[in-house]
Amino acid sequence: MMTEENTFEWPIRIYYEDTDVGGIVYHANYLKFFERARTELFRSAGVSLSDQFAEKISFVVRHMDIDFLKGAQLDDELVVRTWPNSVRKASIEFCQVLVNNNGQTLCKALVQVACVHPDTLKPIKIPENIMSEIF
């Protein structure tokens, strides 16, 4: 299983569109950065979320705890680090941190993602092929 020591890293750069009038990243954009990093984690493991959706398997955010520690700014080059904290039959809790080039954590989140049937939104078991590829 992936751990904090063996984490998925996804680089980002802060663009003008990510910031507010003060040049600081608007708080909702951190959610986008974290979402994209989780998607890229799946992609890097060979799991296509669009293929999963076609097979009636979807992942939705069920719960999120987020701490905004220090504002990211225009032109910052950052890294989102992502690893699963815990796995259950139909959900995964991810730890995610956004760090700068100095290793300083700017934002961190615990994100619980549920595996659901996209038509009913009822929880379903995470398929074994995903478990073996990701974990």
Morphology: elongated
CA-to-CA gap between the ends? 4 Å
Secondary-structure content class: alpha+beta
Number of helices: 3
Mean pLDDT: 93
Tally of strands: 5
Q: How are the strands of the largest sheet arranged?
A: 1-3-4-5-2
Radius of gyration: 15 Å
What is the makeup of the main sheet?
5 strands, antiparallel
What low-confidence regions span 5 or more consecutive residues with pLDDT below 50?
Answer: none
The percent range for helix content is 10-25%
Tell me the strand percentage band: 35-45%
Q: How do the SSEs run, as a string of H and E?
A: EHHEEEEH
Features:
single chain; 135 residues; alpha+beta; 5 strands; 23% helix
What would your notes on this structure say?
The structure is a single chain. The protein is of the alpha+beta class. The protein is built from three helices and five strands, in the order βααββββα.
